[in-house]
Every structure is written in structure tokens, then in C-alpha cells.
Amino acid sequence: MHQSISPPPSKRPRTCEPSNAPTTASRSLSTSITADPNSFRVFSWNINGITPFLQNPITSYFHAPESPHHRNENTRPASLRGFLQRHNWPAVLFLQEVKISRTDTKTQDAVKAAVNTRIVSERGAGSDAKEAPQYEVYFTLPNDRHNARGLRNSGKVYGVCSIIRSDMSTSHSVRHRTVNWDREGRVSVLELCAPNNCKLALFNVYAVNGTDNPYRDPQTGTVIGTRHDRKLIFHELLMEECMQMESLGWKVLLGGDFNVAPDERDGFPKLRTWPPQHVANREDFLNRFLEEGKGLGAVDVWRMMHGEDRRYTYFPRSREWASSCDRVDYFVAGRSVWNGGMVRGCGILDSEVERGPSDHVPFWVDIGFGTGNKD
Q: Which of 44, 188, 223, 354 has its CA 20 to 30 A from that of 256?
């Protein structure tokens, strides 16, 4: 039997703790400092649109308020560079749902500038410019005029962005690629080759959300099913892509928004069971990715490390904070990654502060290329 469901706290940020910690207790904000110097941190965040992170000059976000009494503790300036600095310069940041048109190079350049331009708080700390981390930015954006049109056919819909620290990219011979079966901007792959010849494929995933809306042939525009149908095909193709990588000697780690809450522990106040196709979509995902001995046979990192703990990543802005939420964002580790002890820790930054302008919160995993302790 699973323990009773508890909502997250209404105000305070929380970090990872043992699974027996009360879910309603006050918790301090997590940072990206890793205890193991041989591991690196990967963040993932569905930001629900890049615009709030770019609409003002990047330095304007870091002027302290005149009085602490005027500070809104439930908001935080939307700054990509600020996020990276605040969390101690993680090695990788996966963003989903960036909503950038493939032809909009101006916005793409603005994202690169937002990630790499030093901000006031860096200069104020007296940091040396030579020590300021730089990042490489890779986009996977939609190229499907029939299924990824966006408002007024702008093409500003879906899309993922993979950001990797430059020193990490150099030391691990990183290669970025997409997949040939996705034209909606949903899958980005970073292939890392460590000095010890360990090959790790990091998948940035924004999975299809199953609905009754039509899905059209990307070439002809003819309706060939629903978004539910496409979600099932997406699961199959992603699973096959991962299994092929593993057959070639790659270790696989997927992170992102899978648009599936795995079980009743992952929905508050209850797990979504309507429409019935949503249940079928969940079963398909579990069978293809998380059932040992079936499909990819991978593991849900959060659930494996935190047992019965109930924590959530999706907090719709149309509802009062924590009144309705789901865990649909997580990391999925291939068995060779998990059994090899490469996963060192994971966390969810589930607070209104860290949600920022999005409707999802960030989450992270620590990965080491050597053997490690999963406890």
C-alpha cells in the first residue's frame, strides 16, 4: 500500500531529502554543489516559452530591491545566466518548450547571449572574467508546418534547447545531434565520450502530449490519427532510438518532460485517469521504458532514489500553487547507467520561486563516469 498523499508546501522551496522526510516540512533551497568532484550535474526544465527570459536587458534583473520588505518571495527574475550562476554552473541545462521558430535566428542568438553574457552579480562578486563559465547552446526546433504551426502559423511552439558548459564539451568530446523521425523539435541528443572511454548519450526530451486533436501527415497534411496516436508512436520510436544506442555501446540517460505521471504517487490530489486513452498512454510508456525485462527496461531515477516520497514538477498557473500538481518531468536511466552506479543524486526544486514564469519547476541529476554509490 502506498502512503497517503500530501501536497507540497505553499511557500517554501524544497530540496531532496530521504524518502521518509515529511513532504509538508520546510526545506532549504537546493544548490548544484556536488559532493563528488568526479560527477557532474544535469538540470532539466520545461520553461513554457523563452520570451520571459529575453524581454528585458539581462543585467536589469539583478538590482536588489530597496527594502527586503518589498521583496516578493514567490517570484524570481527570469534570467538563464542567473539560473546557471545561482546553481553553481551546472554542466548541462536541458530546456523544453522554448517556443522559438526555426527561422528566428535573432531569438536564438539572444538565448546564446543570455546564457553567456556576464551579469551584475558576477561583476559585483569581483569574479575574474577568465573564470566566468561559458556555455554552448544547441537548438532542436520544429520543422513541421502541419503539426507544429503555433499561433497564427508562427512556428513558435514546442522546441528544445540543450546547453552545455564549454569546458565539459571540450573534455568529453561532445557531439550534438537530432533524430530523423521527429520534426516537432522534441528530441535533442548530446553524445559524451569521457576520457575513460565511457560513452554516454544524454537525451533532452519533450514528449508528445496525448489529446484528441488531429495529427497530420508531415508531408501531405492529411489527418492520419490523433495526438494520442502520435504519442504512442513517439514512445516506440524513442525507445528504439535508445535501444539502438545501447547496442552500439552507449549508455543512455533521458531527461525532460514526458507528459506522463508514472503512478498514483505522482499526481495530486489524484492521478489523472480521464480520458481513458490517457491511461493507455501511461501503460504504453511504462511498458516501453520502465518495466524491467521489457523494452528499454530503464529506471525512473527519482522514484528509485526516493521511494514513496511524493514530489511534483508540474504546477499549472491557472490553479492556486500546490492545489493540483503532477510529476511528469524526470530522468530515465538505462540499466547500465543505473546498475553501474553512475547516478549519484537527484532533486526537484519544487517551489514558486524556482518555477519562475513557467508552469514547471527545474529538477536535476548528478552523474559520474566512474563507479559510485547509489545510496
A: 223
